[in-house]
Amino acid sequence: MFTGAALAPATAKLISIPGGIAGVKATLARMVDMVRTFKTDLNVRTLAGQLVRGCAEKDYRCELSTLQAYVRDQIRYLRDVDNVETLQTPVQTVKLGYGDCDDKATLVASLAGSIGFPTRFCAIAVRDALDFSHVSAQARLNGQWLNVETIVPGAGLGWFPPDATQCMLAHV
User: Fold this and answer.
1) Residue 3 falls within a domain, yes or no?
2) Is 120 among the domain residues?
3) E strand spans, 2-143
4) 165 is a domain residue
5) pTM here?
6) What CATH number is associated with residue 163?
7) Residue 101 · residue 135 · CB < 8 Å
């Protein structure tokens, strides 16, 4: 049963996003803007620091793997409203405990960016589809861009959909 607290009003900003490739580009641009804003948010940096405290100092692979595992395993994947593209801030995604691929990618990119990792996004089309149906974050580690997949159970750093046919990049 829901309580009144569970249905407390939230502040939202509705914007129009075009369809097709223009919509993918617009969504990626908003995600990039969110990461640029939230990677300097003290709440995001504090969470990142708490998550990686078990890694040895300067073990950057451990740090990135730990952030990926947190978002992949602790933030539930939940689809957007039917036919409505939604984007949550990283802080909102943590508070809610759920989000879709763009919300989870934005969260992991913000966490990683808050502790020094350069990040970008990769919108992905699969199985010869013309539409981009997924997005993941990528982070630079030791001079190499690694995919940081957050919705595939058990996916490790660098895992990339084997049926991907296209990738559209957006750098933070």
Assistant:
1) no
2) yes
3) 76-77, 98-99, 119-126, 134-141
4) yes
5) 0.91
6) 3.10.620.30
7) yes
